[in-house]
């Protein structure tokens, strides 16, 4: 899977997860959610982590939600289905969506 750090605009449907996303000027429709998980911030990199001290609470509670989705754009000019698997991340600290991985 290729790694990215690209901002995306996400539209949610009836479910809590992404329904569509706009990436590099192209609209992708989510066909299936393959996985969903939450990651916490890198607490081990906080200032006090090496000395068994408590680092800033914000580092411990910073979370991002990740969604691995299968999405497509329909058919291209040759009639081939344009689809891929994408990792979308929602950062709770700033409310931003990012595309962080893609396998197409």
Q: Give the strand order of the largest sheet, numbering strands 1, 2, ... along the chain.
A: 1-7-6-5-4-3-2
How would a crystallographer describe the biggest sheet?
Answer: 7 strands, antiparallel
Question: What is the helix/strand order?
Answer: EEEEHEEE
The beta-strand count equals: 7
Question: Cα-atom Rg, whole angstroms?
Answer: 17 Å
Distance between the termini: 8 Å
Number of domains: 1
Task: Tell me briefly what this model is.
This protein is mostly beta strands and 104 residues long.
Question: How does this structure look, described?
Answer:
The protein is mainly beta. It has one domain. Helix content is 5%, strand content 61%. The chain has 1 helix and 7 strands; from the N terminus they run E-E-E-E-H-E-E-E. Strands 1-7-6-5-4-3-2 form a 7-stranded antiparallel β-sheet. The longest helix has 5 residues, at 57-61. The chain is elongated and about 50 Å long. The termini are close together. The relative contact order is 0.27. The mean pLDDT is 83.
């Amino acid at each position: 899977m290729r790694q990215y750090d690209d901002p995306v605009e996400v539209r949610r449907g009836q479910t809590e997860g992404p329904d569509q996303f706009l990436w590099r000027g192209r609209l992708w429709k989510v066909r299936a959610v393959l996985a969903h998980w939450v990651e916490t911030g890198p607490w081990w990199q906080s200032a006090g982590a090496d000395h068994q001290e408590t680092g800033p609470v914000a580092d411990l509670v910073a979370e991002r939600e990740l969604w691995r989705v299968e999405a497509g754009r329909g058919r291209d000019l040759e009639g081939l289905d344009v689809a891929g698997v994408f990792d979308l991340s929602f950062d709770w600290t700033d409310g931003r969506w990012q595309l962080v991985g893609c396998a197409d």
